[in-house]
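Worked Example 4.2. Read the sequence first, then its structure tokens.
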Amino acid sequence: MSLAIRNLAPKEVWNMFADLNAVPRPSKKEERVIQFMVDFGKSLNLETFVDTVGNVIIKKPATKGFENRKTVVMQSHLDMVHQKNAETIFDFEIEGIKMLVEGDWVTADGTTLGADNGLGVASIMAVLASIEIEHPNLEALFTIDEETGMTGAKGLEGGILEGEILLNLDTEEDDEIGMGCAGGVDITANRTYREEQSTDSATGFTISVKGLNGGHSGMDIIKGLGNANKIMNRILFDGFTNFGLRISEINGGSLRNAIPRESFAIISVDKIAADAFLLETNILIDHIKEEFSNIENNLVIAIEKTPLPKKVMEIGVQEGLTKSIYAALNGVYRMTPDIADLVETSNNIARVVVKNGKIEIGCLTRSSSETNKMDLANSLKSAFELSGFNVELSADYPGWQPNVNSAILDIVANLYEKLHGEKAIVAACHAGLECGLLGQHYPEIDMVSFGPTIRGAHSPDERASISSTQKFWAFLIQILKNIPSK
């Protein structure tokens, strides 16, 4: 497996990626990968240091003849999203990613691959290690915690970097050049509830929603994919309204930036209503599966009898919970009026946990408009507060406003057309790149984003195109050769 990856072209990139993927690197637990990068930089005798928040900076002098070109910052993030299929036995804390080659794709065995943003990191590492690639003075910036708060980019101090141009390697379509992105804010709703003893007249059931595609909660939100938390709530609401269903536990979704693929609930229904509940709920399940039949072919919704749970949620809080999740928007809120087919504002109801007298609901709201971001955030906040939740807004970060006069954008776009005989797609994206925050610390820096084709980011279906990585690598080398003079 590892040998197959290491023999792929370009070997210098895939070998670095294999080394990187052997190091556990979950968001907020990046100590091992930080040390890995420090050791890497020092092994090349390059200036290497870690800033106050944990970002790693490695500087490499220009190759001969490129000393008078503008200094370039090459930037990618070290952390990766940890997602796995329910049946996959894997410990992200101690295991390296198990990679596979399937045709033109590199994928992982039941987990996320980490190509987001590991291929960007590996490419920068390959440039730093090369003695053949021509380039100006380089500053490699490896940020931490991009996936769960962008605290690395937020904590980066001004004055550390001298670069005039920043190449962000975190775009996931190889024919796209990024010039802007959405900002975001986390919305967390919490409340407690009183647990009541289940009655002997009830019977227990488990409900499972699984097999959904999931995916990136920004880039994939426009697809209208199924959200396991919304589907589960629809079933619970119907059962509660018509048959007095009582909720004991819910465990739905995981990370805020991943569209939830699975949700599981433990519930009870009075024995006298159980048969009618099963009949109507299975009809509802058939309707839901029909609604998603063209985009969620593997959706499985199952109800099974289980031992009666000992305790259930008090009925008033349960009513507020199911109604507030029903009322809370999930998906696209507004399309960008100035750019065709680009989502401006959206929300992902990412996490719903009910257990032991506590409820927590986690959302990620994204927007390229700060005012509309807060408009939707306030709408969601209101929906939950009306049901007695305490709501906190956190991890707020700005979008990256497009610069139509960007010199590096013109250079990169023209170079793409020259190399490939067709124009690149120059666009903003509905994802949370770090460029907006980096631009706050370095307002004069000229930025552009690009990268190899990656599919299914933030899900166990994540895969990276081998041919696209070859294309991206050749493009990156040419960009470094064409950086303008100071």
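Now turn to a second chain, presented in exactly the same format:
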Amino acid sequence: MSNTPRSTLSPDTFAAERLLLLPAEVLLADGCHSGKAVLIADGCFQEVDDAQALTRRHPELPPIVLPDQLLMPGFIDTHHHLTQSLGKSLVCGEPSEIFKRVWVPLEGSLDEDMLQLSAKLAALEALRGGFTTAVDAGTRSAGDTAAIALAAEQTGLRCVLGLICNDLGGTAAMHEGPQILQRAERHLERWEGHSLVKPSLAISIPEAASDAMLHATSALCAEAGTVFQTHVNEHLQAVERSLVARRQRPLEHLHAVGALGPQALVAHATLVTPDELNLLRDTDTAVAFNPVASAWKGNAVAPALQMAAMGIRFGLGTDGTRSDAFRLMDAAETSQRLAFGLASGDSSCGGGWRWLEHATRGAADVAGLTGLTGEIAPGLAADFLLVDLDVPEMTPSWDRPWELVRYANRDQLTGVFTNGRLRCWQGWPVGWDARALLRQVREASAAVHQAPIYRVHATAAQHRALHPSRQHSPQHSPQHTQHDSPSLSRHRQDASPQSNQHTTERHHP
């Protein structure tokens, strides 16, 4: 058996229907192992065994030896917004609850073509970042969710596809309760058994739906064996609105109407009381822990390590912030260390392995995908990554899990696979033209200017010019720079706080 030279590896290396892969290391549930081989056929892992034993059992298959490559499970993003990719940096530096001022008007302005374009761009970013699965929380657009499913099919990203079922606002098109539930049932039936898409139902936040709708939507998901999604306890404003309106916090509200349970996946849960942690544990409700979202726009950091100690299920999610799975794990560990570990003297903060676990197998659990994906094991879908280990940052290796959490980066991704098919090679998709997509996005993104978006803060260039330390120079005076950015000026003019009031109310929450 001879090694396959690194220089000869190409997408064609993985074109066969059956693959016998012999990587330098394999990341299994209990850690990294060398001397292993993996057999892939019919889109699934068929066997994982000692390399010599497996090659002897299958003399008909030419072994593909992958020097310096780690074969590991694909990452699972447990909370994404695939139809928000056209407005990424519009929210940078903005105060919390940006969904009211940016995301609701942006998504509401998308037709089905723009919906598909946005989702395809987001799916490409996810795959480039090592995510083989994304849980989409649903779009507020009036367009058909089939556009998002098409983007998943075209790129090869596995997708848990949410359908928003709000009956009190927060979407571009409003329907009556019975019609919403009929659409929900059709959505669940439509994608049942799809090779890449699994259906899900969602309520944007608890205040966006009646008690009856919250209960019915969650019950439909429980019956269908899929996840019910909602955002909860993320921002102080939302918690206080719930307290004023109901004398209950959002999580308590969900519990009171019977919407919590093993089928429920609540995003964020950053502002949680001890009693609410008990609610999550006792109802077996799962949490999407979004550490980058906490850093960029949140009011707090979810106590993920405490959740783990209590047996509360959670997976890592991006919230559509940055699709780099390695940096997400780093953010998860860093957030726990800064928010809790420093004060308690906890230097380990999860020991490295925990963040790998909750970005892969644990994430599959909360996404309703246990038994389908999330680890390298016989019978599961062959969703995996090939990670280049022959880089200075991981040489020499003393503790591979910690190295993956703190040192690895998406530029080490040699290949990204779902259902046994190569989807990305060295950062770019296989079988379709990503550069053409980017050109299309640049041309279409002008439509974003027409959405009634309201940004509170200036662009980075304007902020720099307005900074007091630079105001000594006339060319950097506020008068000179106030309207340097046409796009910002347009957004501020078309959606000032006064003119945007009706938009916020119309799309509430």
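Notes for the reader: The chain has 20 helices and 17 strands. The chain has three domains: 6-73+374-429, 75-366, 454-506.
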